Amino acid sequence: MLGTTLILALRSIRRHLLRSFLTILGIVIGVGAVVTMVTLGKATTAAVQQQISALGSNILQIRPGQGFGRGGGGPQPPNFKPEDVEAIAQQVAGVTAVAPQASASATAIYEGANWSTSINGTTSAFLTVQPWPLVAGRYWTPAEQEAGKAVCLIGNTVRTNLFRGADAIGKRIRLGNISCDVIGALSTRGQGGFGDQDDVVVMPIKTVQRRFTGNRDVRLMLVGVDTDYQTSTVQAAITDLLRERRHLTGGRDDDFNIFDTKQISDTLTGTTTLLTRIVAAVAAISLVVGGIGIMNIMLVSVTERTREIGIRLAIGAVAREVLLQFLVEAVALSCLGGIIGLVIAQGVILALVPLMQVPWTFDPQINIIAFAISAVIGVVFGYFPARRAAALNPIDALRHE
Amino acid sequence: MPDPLITMRSVTKVYGTGATQFQALKGVDLDIQAGDFVAVMGPSGSGKSTTMNILGCLDVPSAGTFLFRGHHVETLDRDQRALLRRRYLGFVFQGFNLLSRTSALENVELPLLYRGEDKKTRRELGMAALAKVGLDRWWDHTPAELSGGQQQRVAIARAIVTQPDVLLADEPTGNLDSERSVEIMELLTDLNRTANITVLMVTHEPDMAAFARTVIHFKDGLVERIEAQHQQGAAVEA
Lengths: 401, 238
Ligand SMILES: Nc1ncnc2c1ncn2[C@@H]1O[C@H](COP(=O)(O)OP(=O)(O)O)[C@@H](O)[C@H]1O
Ligand SMILES: [Mg+2]
Description:
Radius of gyration of chain A: 33 Å
Strand content of chain A: 15-25%
Low-confidence stretches of chain B: 234-238
Bound molecules: adenosine-5'-diphosphate, magnesium ion
Shape of chain B: globular
Shape of chain A: elongated
Number of domains of chain B: 1
CATH architecture of chain B: 3-Layer(aba) Sandwich
Structural class of chain B: alpha/beta
Largest interface: A-B, 24 and 29 residues
Order of helices and strands of chain A: HHEHEEHEHEHEEEEEHEHEHHHHH
Number of strands of chain A: 12
Largest sheet of chain B: 6 strands, mixed
Oligomer: heterodimer
Number of helices of chain B: 8
Number of domains of chain A: 2
């Protein structure tokens, strides 16, 4: 019987193509919107999380400068010194390591190839704070670090552009005015929110200070926090220490900023998740509106097809069959709308992903849920018109003009 | 004489309630033998359609008994009557009542669909029924592409495709000119004779009633008289 009913429903949909299309438009838009919004929302959240986790978790980033939003006027706050790095590492409880950074930019040259990149000077502590495996070669030794030797680890982008697949370890490259031995090749970190993280040459900080910046300044410190400690406690201790070291007394503002990457991550993730929920809720409302649209048009259809229902009843359809026909018709319509909505959503997602710079994802769960909802909407909003059709009296229905 | 196919005893039908109440049938007694060709005549409002609706198991009497093939139809519920119609009855209406935007063949196949016949059987029986009314070459035309007479013949094909015991036709020629009407009557006569289908037909045209073997005259919700005709179609052929 269900087979028969399905045939009848599909025939009827085919016979009234334009009306069928208008009927399902609401569902198409609803399903399409829900799936697009949820998928893109999740992708955005994932992208943000990926970028944050590229920074490492349980890390405090310390930079000189006034807090955000305060005037840019006044003298530039001083950079940190190697002594500050030492002090934090020695005196603050809960700190696993402190990696200083001094940076410069230069053109790297190897045989005919050259490539502009940035140079990151640091100590072996950066490996403790933010592990970065090698694909080949070795890290520098403590002796090389102390002596400020011209040795370097190269990021994947630099390696690709200079060596084009050839072995880089042990080769000597030119960096600006100096020659430098490549001792290690860093693994790929990929695209972060802060540009290509693999476009970098990492060297001992002393080498960078001596050969490039010409001073002992440290522009940035990355502090690893022991997971047994609260980052906020460690942050407060560092703040006190740095204020003392920088002679900030009384009511004077901090002239440095400490960012807690985990806190940034939580905040951003929370925000994107909330946004996703709000937008999905709005889209879900449009699904319900779509359902009401189906009911509305099914009711019109029942009235319009009263005579048809009369014919069916007269030739021996039982009430249940008429009910089922209209119900199946409504469900078939809403499922059709659901499928079209899903397909359109995939298209929209494909088009928007490059614009939003988020990774493409296919989330089977939301697709299944959205489709199931469209089927349920067909049942719920199709039932009332279908029952009305089934309750018609054949004689009256046949006489209906 | 064998037991009649249809027996009505003291059938009354009251429409509406209270002040607007109207008694359309006031005690109808009828016996119809299997294989008969019956014309129901009478002035407008005399209860012909009401009687046909009850005979067609589309409606139930307010009081009285209506026996069809031994079933007390007045005791059956809606769905049970639907199953009786599906199994034993075929309908032809004055207004043709075909599904629009639907081919002649699909219209004819419709009752078979409710009987659960498979696609191949539906196609074969549907084409055979269309052939019987001379429209097999028009099987893929929709009602809008057919003339009135052709539409009524499609409706007849739909009524007989299930090989019913009884074909009920309420003013089947009411919307047709006399030439087309005669064609329909000849078709009904042929079905009655060769397929042994009992035909019950309402008409107010004596020319059409002349094709019947039995003519039942209604007046004011009662059977006025029943007349047997021995020379079917005489009025036209003379
Ligand atoms: N559904 C109905 N409700 C109220 N009155 C009706 C209904 N159907 C028919 N009638 C009345 O019953 C009487 C008989 O109707 P009907 O059997 O259709 O007459 P006929 O077919 O002989 O012209 C008429 O007076 C008609 O107005
Ligand atoms: Mg009438």
